[in-house]
Amino acid sequence: AVADGVVAAAVQDTIATDPGKVVFFNVNGDFINSVIVGSLPDHVSFSPDKTLLLVANEGEPATDYSTDPEGSVSVIDMTPGAASLTQADVTRIGFTQFDADIDGLRAAGVRIFGPTNSVSQNVEPEYITVSGDGKTAWVTLQEANAVGVIDLETKVVTAIVPLGLKDYAAQNVSLDASD
Questions:
Q1: 54 forms bridges with which residues in the sheet?
Q2: Cα–Cα dist 175/124, whole Å
Q3: Contact, 138 vs 129, CB < 8 A?
Q4: By Cβ atoms counted within 10 A, which residue in 13, 48, 51, 73 is the most buried?
């Protein structure tokens, strides 16, 4: 993501299940700073007023599920400026408050899978968009077939909304190449 002459790039750790970084450069490619974020950082997005940078931390499991980090969203307060950022400017927002409602979320249509996974391990934040007023963010939880709703003022995930299912087989609808 680019804003006000600053380029922010998500960089995964050499061990993909470990926390990654967001690295800041100027538009000429000169290093400015970096901060640690969650496991397997993916999409980065500035808020409309450029005071926040949001990072979708996918938290994908190891192929054998021996390690399965929680998905999260990191919110970086950009008001000090990229050069002055410290870890204190990074807030990691998780989904653990939904772990106890795993059965309810499944019943609602949220896809939760894996050998022993919790909700917070199954949601793998992928892409973030921010409302025009900068108060709300929505993060796609692609593998869970859902969207997380984040209150940016309180820095809390307020809901996981299932995206539903379209059962083409039950409707006897055929698909062609244009689909």
A1: 45, 75
A2: 29
A3: yes
A4: 73
CA distance 118 to 61: 12
pLDDT at 114: 73
DSSP assignment letter at 119: H
Q: pLDDT tens for residues 48-72? A: 999 999 999 999 988 888 889 999 9
- Is the separation of the CB atoms in 54 and 130 below 8 Å? yes
- Sheet with 52-57, strands from edge to edge, namely 41-46, 52-57, 72-77, 90-93
Mean pLDDT across the chain, nearest whole number? 93
Does residue 169 have a pLDDT over 80? no
Burial 22-58 (b: 16+ CB within 10 A, else e): bbbbeeeeeebbbbebbbbbbbbbbbeeeebbbbbbb
Sign of the CA dihedral running 81, 82, 88, 90: positive
- Structure tokens that stand for 64 in this block: 């054998």
Q: 94-123 burial, b for 16+ CB within 10 Å, e for fewer?
A: bbeebbeebeebeeeebbbeeeebbbbbbb
**Whether the Cβ atoms of residue 129 and residue 122 lie closer than 8 Å to each other:** no
Structure tokens at 39: 């496991």
